[in-house]
Every structure is written in C-alpha cells, then in structure tokens.
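STRUCTURE REQUEST FORM
Protein name: Bifunctional protein FolD
Source organism: Anaerosolibacter carboniphilus
Requested output: structure tokens
Priority: standard
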Amino acid sequence: MGVKLDGKPVVQHLREDIKKRVALLEEDGNTPTMLIIRVGEREDDISYEKSILKNCEILGIRSFVKCLPVDVSQEDLIAVIEQANTNDDIHGIMLFRPLPAHLDLEVIRDVINPMKDIDCMNPVNLQKVLETNVKGIAPCTPKAVVELLKYYNIPLEGANITMVGSSLVVGKPLGLLLIEEKATVTFCHIYTKDVAAFTTKADIVIVAIGKAKLIKDNYFNENTVVIDVGINVTEDGKICGDVDYDLVFDKVKAITPTVGGIGIITTTILLSHVVEACETFVQSYSVNA
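Status: completed
Returned output:
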C-alpha cells in the first residue's frame, strides 16, 4: 500500500517560518513586497495570479500586479522591469511565462535584477546553484521537491535518485540541489534507451517531462519513492501528472499527488523568496548606511 506524500502539511510548515520572518521584518518597518508582471490575459496566468495574491494576503506580503497588453513592445516590457529593479520598495519580481512569440525571453530575463529574481529566471542565479558556496535564489520547483523530501524524512544522503527529465527549469537545477544533499543522481532523457532499467533500481524517482500519465507501474519497484512534478490537462479537461497515479499508487512505497502536491509547495517557495529578497535588501542597506 503506497503512502500519499501530501503537499499541504509541507506548505503549512513553510508558512509558519515565513510568517515569523515577515513579523521580524515588520518590527523594523519593512514589508516584503513583490511585483507580478503579466502580459496578456491567459487563463492560466490569471488563475496563478489569484493564487499568489491570496497567499500573499495570508502571509503578510504586499503584492502589486502590472498588466501589459499582449502586443506590448519588448522595449516597454523591459522599461517596466528596469523601473522595478530600481524601486527599493519592491523586493521581488515575478514575470509570467510563456511570453508572446514576439518577445525574446532570453533578452528579457537578463534584465531582471538577480537580487529580485524570485523565480530564478536570470542566468546569474542559475549559476549560483552551481557554485554551492555562493548565496543565491534557487529555482522554486526544484527547491519545493527538496523541501518535501526533507519534511517527510526521506533520506537523501547516499540515496540513489533517478531524474526523468533534464530541463533547465526543473531537472538540471534539482539534480544539483540533490547532489549538494549528498545523493547520487542519474539523469534520464529523451535519448535514454531503457529508462525503466534506471528507475526500477532507484530509491527515489523524480519525473518532470510534461507528458500526461506516460510513466506506468513497470518503471518502479515496491520500495520506490515517486515525486511527480508534472501537471497536465487531459482531453476531457482533467488534471493529471506525468505518472499514472491511480495505477502506480499501490505498487510503490510513496508518491506525490498531482493536485495538492509539488505545485502548492512551489507557490509557497516563491513567496519565501520574496521574504528572502527583502531580508537581503535590509541587510545590505544596513551595511551601506
């Protein structure tokens, strides 16, 4: 019988820490503040925006939204980011993606101040993930996975972990974070000839490929801990992961659900980054004062 690795208690645990840190900042008159930049009216963006704003209210984080038309020029979008970069009252910047095709994300992400880059878009912050002795903001989803594993006391030191998916957003940075936790990490990708040969021998399997229910029960053994990062929508409008949850649940040691799993932790990590950015700003201001 599998165990459901619910994200809700992890979120609650993280929220308690965030609230304490916000209270300490408020004592000195500092309110963690984020700016959401949204281009267009994509339903997914609007839904996520509502979730972020609701969570900001719960945690005592101030939030603002800058809505730009879908045909906004690259110059105008960059101007908004640069204005936020220089505004000391804004500690975190969140730019919703994907952007319209006429906007060059590789150029735009470089404009975001790394100190305010709460979603780890700027390559400077990705570089800091490589340099373990350098403090930086790690990508939200990889950090959420690590927080969940730690919360449930799943051993990482010496663990054999297979990562199915090697994207720059999840797979690669997560692998680096897990190596820092002294795990042995194996990557499987589109050119891996026999993925199951690796996953069936792993203590932990993490899947992030964006393919609905592609991974079945034959990829695991009864002692596998499965972390499903994928969020997909089926043809009939149902949300599912990359792993066939119903088929796999009873045949593994533990597994995350798609709804109420890694996704809700990721949002909380994002907001913890706003607080972290505010703390860093206050510390640097005190040093330079």
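Reviewer notes: The longest strand covers residues 33-39. Residues 262-288 form the longest helix (27 residues).
Form closed.
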